[in-house]
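A reminder from the course coordinator: this example appears on the midterm review sheet, so study it carefully.

Given structure:
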């Protein structure tokens, strides 16, 4: 069982995001947050993959709930949104879920809800073909400050809701801010058999990917207006003075005037340092997996089989998975194009130490893809 995306949206919905303290970071959790409400919402959002798909009504209910979390300012009532989405989904019941969502968006736009399809996690060519009149945006959507979810926004997929027989299935959770919240998760699920998958990637490729994300029209996570003004060299636009991307690490105030590559390097190191510091003393099984092995077509089947065995999940028939939340199609050593920009960051003792702790060594090597 899993959510369709990250549960960071539910953290915000139930007051478990950033506390009002102006120096708080993603590991800070308000004691006034509603943990029981979080668990109830988590349970209601769970889905189970199914070859038989799901009923249109269940699918449309999830679409309407997600749109409400992603886009504010609808001129329609929830019942009206449901009916519009239901009619569009029924007409395209055999189409892929991306096309179904865009058909729903078209109908809702025609009724005055200015949803921008470019902020969904869908292939650019598909969006351009369906909405040639809408230009690729720059910066976050204007109403993002009221949104619970950060773009690129989820695209609901046909999946069934869990039933009693699914109670013994493993529950998969993934949210990048949980690098700072492992003890909190243990407290949320005190009776769970916790298994932690620590996914790593060499610092050159990982930091380069973060830079790509900061320069993308998605991945805006925190509006810091009122807390500070960002003057990050290499990060520009009307949004660049207030909108932070990805995780907000401890000590982030020291980064708001630094070059973008250094900001991304600090984010990479802080997240892994927090994970490594949290693991000792946790009653959990832990496995570390290199992204380089997952991306290697020859090694991928073995790695996936190892992960499934670790999670006590029975292998299913192989399927072609869609790449999600990517600024570009993955290719080896893409970071080489930014080598001059990355070199001073990779020479930072903090980055080198973290790289060594993760088993990559202090300097770029031939296997840093």
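Designed residues:
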């Amino acid at each position: 069982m899993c959510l369709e995306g990250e549960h960071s949206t539910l953290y915000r919905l139930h007051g478990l995001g950033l506390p009002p303290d102006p120096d708080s970071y993603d590991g800070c959790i308000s004691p006034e947050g509603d943990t029981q409400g979080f668990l109830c919402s988590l349970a209601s959002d769970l889905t189970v993959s199914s070859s038989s798909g799901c009923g249109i009504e269940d699918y449309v209910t999830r679409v309407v709930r997600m749109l409400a979390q992603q886009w504010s300012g609808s001129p329609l009532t929830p019942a009206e949104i449901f009916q519009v989405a239901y009619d569009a989904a029924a007409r395209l019941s055999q189409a892929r879920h991306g096309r179904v969502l865009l058909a729903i968006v078209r109908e809702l736009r025609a009724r005055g809800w200015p949803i921008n399809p470019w902020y969904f996690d869908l292939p650019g060519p598909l969006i351009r073909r369906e909405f040639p009149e809408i230009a690729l945006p720059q910066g976050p959507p204007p109403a993002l400050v009221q949104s619970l979810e950060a773009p690129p926004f989820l695209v609901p997929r046909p999946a069934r809701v869990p039933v009693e027989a699914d109670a013994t299935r493993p529950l998969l959770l993934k949210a990048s801010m949980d690098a700072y919240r492992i003890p909190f998760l243990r407290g949320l699920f005190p009776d769970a058999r916790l298994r932690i998958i620590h996914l790593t990637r060499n610092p050159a490729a990982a930091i380069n990917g973060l830079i790509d994300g900061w320069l993308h029209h998605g991945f805006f996570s925190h509006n810091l207006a009122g807390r500070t003004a960002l003057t990050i060299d290499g990060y520009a636009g009307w949004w660049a003075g207030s909108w932070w991307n990805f995780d907000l690490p401890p000590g982030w105030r020291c980064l708001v005037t630094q070059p973008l590559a250094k900001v991304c390097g600090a984010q990479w190191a802080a997240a892994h340092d927090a994970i490594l510091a949290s693991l000792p003393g946790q009653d959990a099984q832990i496995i570390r997996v290199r992204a380089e092995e997952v991306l290697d077509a020859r090694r991928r089947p073995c790695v996936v089989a190892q992960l499934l065995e670790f999670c006590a999940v029975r292998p299913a028939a192989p399927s072609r998975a869609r790449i999600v939340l990517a600024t570009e199609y993955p290719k080896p050593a893409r970071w080489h194009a930014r080598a001059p920009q990355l070199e001073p960051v990779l020479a930072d003792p903090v980055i080198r130490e973290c790289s060594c702790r993760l088993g990559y060594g202090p300097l770029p090597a031939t296997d840093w893809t």
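The chain has two domains: 8-146, 193-357. The radius of gyration is 21 Å.
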